[in-house]
Amino acid sequence: MSFIEGIKERAKEKNCRIVLPESYDPRVCEAARMISEEGLCRIILFSEDGKEFPDPGVTSLPGIEVVDYQHSPNLPKFAEQLYELRKHKGMTPEKAAEQVLDPMFFGTMMMYNDEADGMVAGAIHSTADTMRPALQIIKTAPGIHTVSSYIVEVVPDCELGDDGIFLFSDPAVVEFPTEDQLVDIAVASAKTFETLTGHEPIVALLSYSSKGSAKNERLQYIINAAARLKEDYPNLKTDGELQLDAAIVPSVAELKAKGSPAAGQANVLIFPDLNAGNIGYKLVQRLAKAEAYGPVMQGLKKPINDLSRGCFAEDIVGTVALTCLQV
User: Fold this and answer.
1) CB 274: neighbour CB atoms within 10 A?
2) What is the rounded distance in angstroms from the CA atom of residue 14 to the CA atom of residue 169?
3) Which of 1, 142, 249, 327 has the lowest tally of Cβ within 10 angstroms?
């Protein structure tokens, strides 16, 4: 059984309700049809005045609920709740009433009221537009200081990582992580990898330098974070700073980081900033023809997950399955 098939089988057991607010995108409609046919979960789509779904038949499939959010009887309640949540930030009743007519905010308010378990969006919205209502309304889980994201990449015909499975973080949320945030991201990503795969996470903090091969003040926060991980989480296999080849290729690790507990075998790759993380995962997805699932968020009270605007229907289905496991 493939990685994603295993995730889907576990997701089916949870019978979750997942909102796909970008309901008129053809890829979203195709994904909703696939999810219905597989019995993966229940899907909530949004209808709008005067618009026809790219696949009109999708609305009558088993497990598909269509909500006319623009005329929902919940609009006044949602607007009042949003106003109360955000009035300390200058929200007005009028602005709240306008904002809940945005499908991204309406879907998030459904989750806030336990009318949905999760949401997946980003096929046509930016990460900022997808995550803004999540951070404003759902907020972080208790004890979590950093909301971050990860991508699961499944590389075909690859013996590196966990037989071709890698977790990349952070490709979508924390633009320039501090030393503290880098530690948080690494720990959260390790836990996520173990939860998803059942295998031991091996964590590499990536850089253009391996174990002091370059000297630069910008590298120091990576080196410090790596040292803190080793001290505070002695049972976690981790190392840094490491170049990508030293992190995942055993022969290169022997040359650049001999004796490292993580070099040459890493399956969790922590990137130094958002530029590197986003570029890295898209390179692997496109050039290696890898399956990419996410970005999936870590650290929210309830799961709202972001898609790449270049995603395929299959990517949406996989992200929905991962979202179900977070519920």
Assistant:
1) 18
2) 26
3) 142
Q: Residue 246 corresponds to which amino acid?
A: A
Residues 6+ apart with CB under 8 A from 230: 238, 239
Give the model's pLDDT for residue 311.
87
Of 188, 171, 271, which is closest to residue 233 (Cα–Cα)?
188
Burial bucket for residue 55 (CB in 10 Å: 0-12, 13-18, 19+):
middle
Residue 291 near residue 300 (C-beta atoms within 8 A): no
Please tell me the predicted confidence (pLDDT) of residue 37.
97
Tens-digit pLDDT profile for residues 34-57: 999 999 999 999 999 989 999 999
3-state secondary structure of 156: coil
Q: What is the pTM of this model?
A: 0.80
Q: Give dist(CA 2, CA 177) in Å, integer.
A: 33
CA distances from 80 to 6, 92, 93 (A): 41, 10, 7
Residue bearing tokens 């964590």:
203
**Whole-angstrom distance, CA of residue 277 vs CA of residue 94:** 39
Neighbour tally for 124: CB within 10 Å: 15
For residue 44, list its beta bridge partners. 19, 65
- Name the nearest CA neighbour of 319 among 181, 176, 150, 98: 150
Residue 161, token pair as written in the block: 């990582």
Pairs from 245-249 (Cβ < 8 Å, separation ≥ 24): 246/210, 246/211, 247/204, 247/206, 248/160, 248/161, 248/166, 248/204, 249/160
Contacts (Cβ under 8 Å, ≥6 apart) of 270: 169, 170, 182, 185, 186, 189, 203, 204, 205, 206, 240
Q: In Å, what is the CA distance from 275 to each residue of 170, 177, 206, 280, 283?
A: 9, 11, 13, 8, 12
Domains and CATH numbers, the chain: 3-139+300-326 (3.40.50.10950), 148-287 (3.40.50.10750)
